[in-house]
Automatic annotation (TrEMBL):
Residues 1-25 form the signal peptide. Keywords: Signal. The lineage of its organism: Bacteria, Bacillati, Bacillota, Clostridia, Eubacteriales. InterPro entries: ABC_Transporter_SBP, ABC_transptr_periplasmic_BD. This is ABC transporter substrate-binding protein. Belongs to the bacterial solute-binding protein 8 family. Residues 58-344 form the Fe/B12 periplasmic-binding domain.
Length: 373
């Protein structure tokens, strides 16, 4: 009797295994619900713990740098609305087909609610508490990340990967980014401090319209790196000609200084930054030439060593201030130390970034040298 029972059990198990193998061979499997109805707790860049129900299908991005990060992670189809001049300044992202919810300080909250997003992404230091007060009572989570401050960018990208289950894509992008950063690090690490070029990073818009100086500091009051445009100087092997410290709680990323301050520090190199000059849709270098000529007429730029030697370089803010920073840093390093980067063409990396990570063609003028005139 025991033998019969044993034979029956063996036969039954064999039958079950056969059925399982057949099902698998036909591509059938038990559905893996994956993240369906899973709840995770994340910590955004303000330190706030937030519960997120997965999968996330509808989001609004009120930060154009976060919008670009979402494009990199290939979850742009989840974006149902943008703000922060995303459509104007980042037209290559393809978000012109979703509602533009306004500038950072004039967000249309009623429209956001109508779109029924699960998450709204916003800067850490803008619209403080207003979004939370209006959106959280109706079940919309507010996640605050910046995606442009040097010391936070990698962690914020990883956070997005966690929210959208795109950890592999994040790792691939960060590895690519690290390889590019290492290229610069290796070539400038041996430069002694006395041989480093002194650089002052300035707002091109303010200088062009007012003749005055607004500086992007390379460091913050909390001892961390400053804003991207300023910190790029350090990454490229230069040294900050100024001694200013940025307050991260301030909305502005620049500090106003007078002529005396700039003339006293007399930088060897000046970098100029803005979103209105250059970029994806710029086709003519004449716009840069006109701006430089105007700046020379209405400011003390030509009294500086940088102005006398045409060591003046214009960068579109996005090429040094956010996800494209490694490319802009490479170009800046080549401007500062051309002999160390003779075999490197930064625009090749820019093309790769647009093609591989944004899925679109590379075009426009993103940086310009006064020596090109």
């Amino acid at each position: 009797m025991k033998n019969k029972t044993r034979k029956f059990i063996v036969s039954l198990l064999s039958f079950i295994l056969l059925i399982s193998f057949t099902a698998c061979s036909k591509g059938e499997k038990v559905e893996d619900k994956g993240n369906s109805n899973k709840v995770i707790t994340i910590k955004d860049s303000t330190g706030k713990d937030i519960e997120i129900k997965l999968p996330v299908e509808r989001v609004v991005s009120l930060n154009r740098q976060t919008s670009e990060a979402l494009k990199i992670l290939e979850v742009d189809d989840k974006v149902v609305g943008t703000g922060d001049t995303t459509v104007k300044n980042n037209p290559y992202l393809g978000f012109d087909n979703v509602p533009d919810l306004g500038k950072t300080d004039k967000v249309n909250i009623e429209e956001i609610i109508k779109l029924k997003p699960e998450i709204v992404f916003a800067h850490t230091n803008r619209n403080k508490d207003v979004l939370e007060e209006k959106l959280e009572p109706v079940g919309i989570k507010v996640v605050r990340i910046d995606n442009y401050l040097p010391e936070k960018m990698n962690d914020e990208m990883k956070l997005l990967g966690q929210i959208f289950s795109k950890e592999d894509r994040v790792k691939e992008f960060l590895d690519w980014k690290k390889n590019l950063e290492s290229l610069v690090e290796e070539r400038v690490k041996g430069i002694e401090d006395k041989d480093k070029k002194s650089v002052l990073a300035l707002s091109v818009g303010f200088l062009n319209s007012d003749g005055g100086y607004r500086v992007f500091p390379s460091k913050s009051k909390d001892g961390k790196p400053g804003v991207g445009e300023g910190y790029a100087t350090i990454l490229a092997g230069g040294k900050d000609a100024g001694d200013l410290e940025w307050n991260p709680s301030e909305k502005s990323t620049t500090i106003l200084v007078n002529d005396e301050y700039v003339l006293k520090n007399n930088p060897e190199v000046v970098t100029l930054h803005g979103t209105w000059l250059g970029g994806y849709n710029e086709e003519n270098k004449k716009a840069f030439e006109d701006v430089l000529n105007n700046i020379k007429k209405m400011s003390s730029l030509e009294k500086l060593d940088a102005g006398k030697n045409d060591e003046v370089y214009i960068f579109h803010t996005d090429m040094l201030g956010a996800n494209k920073r490694p490319i802009g840093v490479l170009q800046l390093a080549k401007y500062l130390y051309p002999e160390k980067f003779k075999d490197v063409e930064p625009e090749q990396y820019a093309k790769e970034y647009f093609n591989k990570w944004l899925g679109t063609e590379y075009k426009g003028i993103w940086f310009y040298s006064a020596k090109d005139k």
